[in-house]
Structure formats: C-alpha cells, structure tokens
Amino acid sequence: MTERQEKQTRHSDTRMVPYPSKAIVPERDLNVAPILETHHLGIQFGGLKAVDDFNLIIGRSEIAGLIGPNGAGKTTVFNMLTKVYEPTEGSVIFDGKDMMGKSIVQASKLGIARTFQNIRLFNQMTVEENVRIGLHNQIKYTTATALLRLPNFWIKEHRQHKRALELLSIFGMEGMADVRAGSLPYGAQRRLEIVRALATGPKLLLLDEPAAGMNPHETEELMNTIARIRDEFNIAILLIEHDMSLVMGVCEGICVLNFGKVIAKGTAREIQNNPVVIEAYLGKQKEG
Fold this sequence. Notes:
This protein is α/β, with parallel strands linked by helices. The chain has helices at 3-10, 74-81, 104-110, 127-134, 143-148, 151-168, 186-199, 216-233, 244-250, 268-272, 275-282, and strands at residues 16-18, 24-26, 36-45, 48-58, 63-67, 89-94, 97-98, 112-114, 204-208, 236-240, 253-258, 261-266. It has two domains: 1-111 and 202-217 and 236-288, Rossmann fold; 120-201, P-loop containing nucleotide triphosphate hydrolases (Rossmann fold, 3-Layer(aba) Sandwich). It contains eleven helices and twelve strands. Helix 1 (3-10) crosses helix 9 (244-250), helix 4 (127-134) runs parallel beside helix 7 and helix 6 crosses helix 7.
C-alpha cells in the first residue's frame, strides 16, 4: 500500500459498533447520547417527495458522510437540519433537543454550523472580518460600550482578533487576514467558509462539498484537516461530497441517498462493496 493510500484509509478504519436503534456509531461514542438523530424525516414540495423516511444517527465525535448522485436530496437534508426548511414528516433531535419549530438562528445557537455548495462569503470584507462575523455570539459588551469605545470594548476586540487568527491558522491562512475575501483563490475561499463556520462554536459541522474546486493535493490536505478539526474541537462532522477519495478516506459511517431515499448505510469498506451502491451511485461494474 502506498503512503497516499495509507493516509486515505487510516481515518476510516475506526471500529463501528451497533447502536440500540440498529444504527452504527464509532465505538468511542457508544456510551454517550448521539449528537444527532433523525426519525422518519421527510419533506414534500407540492406533490413531490424530495426526501422520504430519512433515518440517521451520528455519534458525538463521528465524521459521517452523506453521498448520492446529483438531485438525490442531500442538500435538502442539510436544509432541514439547519432549519432552512421545516420537515413535513418526522423529527430531528439535536443534542437531546427536539428541533421542531426552531429557527435558523436558534439552530446556530444550539450548535449547528454549515458551509454551502455555492460559497457565501462577504466578498468585500477581509478574511478576518468574515471569521469575526462567525464570532458574533461571543460579543459580550453593550452597544453603549462599543459606541463610547470603553476599555471593555478594546479588550473584547483584541480577544476576537486573536481568536480569528487562531482559527485561520488551522488552514495556514493567518497571513491572509487583511486580504479581501473575494480576491482569494477558489480553494482558499472554501477553506475560509469552513473557518467561519467553526467560529460559531458548533457541536455539529455540516460541510456541503468542501472539496469542490480543489486539486488532489488540496483534497488530501483537507482530509487530514477534517480529522484534525474533529479531534481539536471535539465535534461531529457530516459532509456531502462527490470526491470518493475524500469520503472513503475520512468518513467513519456513510449514508447513501438516491431519489430521496436511503439505499445503504455502513462503513467505507461496506459501502465500497455494496452492489446496490455500486449500481445506483458509483456506476454498474463492467463484466469481465
């Protein structure tokens, strides 16, 4: 096995064990409540069921993958988890709390953060300013303190500046703090969006195609960074991705969606060898 192959498999070798509901979670998460549970989740747009009977459990420190062909309903699932859409069926339990009726802001405050397929940065603002927007929940001074520039304002501003640079250092981007976000290369914009999501202090980070637009070297670095983020921040991560080298290299549990329905769940090795997945998503194997 080459060094690159070893890197791509080491993160996905975690032993996955049965959970009471027949789901699987990493063994280290077995004795703690899962961070996320969805039960018979579904949504209709008009008469069309975009997602139907979606059931998923994610352990508190799990890196999970949600894969499937274009139009399978993956981003719709993300939109339901982050309260962009209200499910028409089923329930979402996050960190032990029922998310029914919660708003996007409430979901963020509870600890759900996400990135998007189409990058959503404040292009005219600097890299650091984009990250500090994610730190808004940590602003503790009053409006009067800010207007009058009292000492507490400058203390908190300094702390936010320091924290923003610390977060940017995850991707080695602290030297770009004063650069306008819109002028960054595409891959760097992707990384900045992840940093901004981390700035909110999430318990669950949703990454929507984080490797899009990245070259193989950048994708390999991203794979290792995702594992590092999970370990350093002690959070769970759920990612949507079409780059199978990233998915199989870093994800511990994988859920496969097709036409809005779950067609398979399992470890990276199980999904790679699942004939239903091979035919429906990865493509039907050629004979002989």
